[in-house]
């Protein structure tokens, strides 16, 4: 290598791309529904049972899928009555899940409250910095063909290693807390103008809080930039709902949340197995 040749000079740190690498897994859809109880109660008992049985058959099949499952939750509060969470390998399959549910007779008694579209995402801040700097030290120009090839090789290796986190089974816990969030990008504080090293440091600090709750809560982060109104979605699964409050409250005190986090509406629901759907529709709490 000729160190005087401009194409072989190391790339300055300030010239490195600002965007961290990410890994993507299951396409994810949250459907929040309102249940028309008055119309439901007006039906004969046999009709209600038949309609619930038809829906139970479909939901049971969705629960048991080996390549992306669905789960039903009974929502607390006024924001909705039911929430369906779908993991699928593609967005086409998500849309098919919507269409399959829309064909059910039960759909006549459901009204969409809101929804959220995203994809399971793992951010690779640490790996990104190492990879970018290693390529820069070799004099490889950012976004060149050689650079893109090296990046794709890194992503492929990481995706294989992280497959269980990118394509998880639906956690079986009794409670789910879902909320969307953004990183602040206003006039005073803007997450996206920070150097990558500083973003990586703050995210590492943020992650340490979550790891202290390992075993109590299962967290799944989804990316929604370009898919929905917020930038990320967060699903927290636990058997004790108080852990949601404790975890999120503690995280509010780390720097990245205290300064840069903006939170959307929170949805908390109780898991309803497909075989308890009729009981739920009739007003009995699923167990």
Structural commentary:
Helix content is 37%, strand content 25%. It has 287 residues and is of the alpha+beta class. Strands 1-3-2-9-5-7-6-4 form an 8-stranded antiparallel β-barrel. The longest helix has 19 residues, at 45-63.
What is this entry, summarized?
By secondary structure, the chain is an alpha+beta fold.
What are its keywords?
about 290 residues; alpha+beta; 10 helices
Oligomeric nature of the chains: single chain
Q: Give the overall shape, derived from the CA principal axes.
A: elongated
Strand arrangement, largest sheet?
1-3-2-9-5-7-6-4
Number of strands: 9
- What is the alpha-carbon Rg in Å? 23 Å
Q: What count of helical segments does DSSP give?
A: 10
**Rounded mean pLDDT score:** 90
Largest sheet: 8 strands, antiparallel, barrel
Order of helices and strands: EHHEEHEHHHEHEEHHEEH
Helix content: 25-40%
Which range does the strand content fall in? 25-35%
Distance between the termini: 68 Å
Class of secondary structure makeup: alpha+beta
Q: Could you list the spans in which at least 5 consecutive residues all have pLDDT below 50?
A: 1-10
Write the topology of this structure:
Layout: E1 22-35, H1 37-41, H2 45-63, E2 70-75, E3 82-88, H3 91-102, E4 110-123, H4 125-137, H5 145-161, H6 163-166, E5 175-183, H7 196-211, E6 218-223, E7 232-238, H8 242-251, H9 255-260, E8 261-263, E9 267-272, H10 277-281
Antiparallel strand pairs: 1-3, 1-4, 2-3, 2-9, 4-6, 5-7, 5-8, 5-9, 6-7
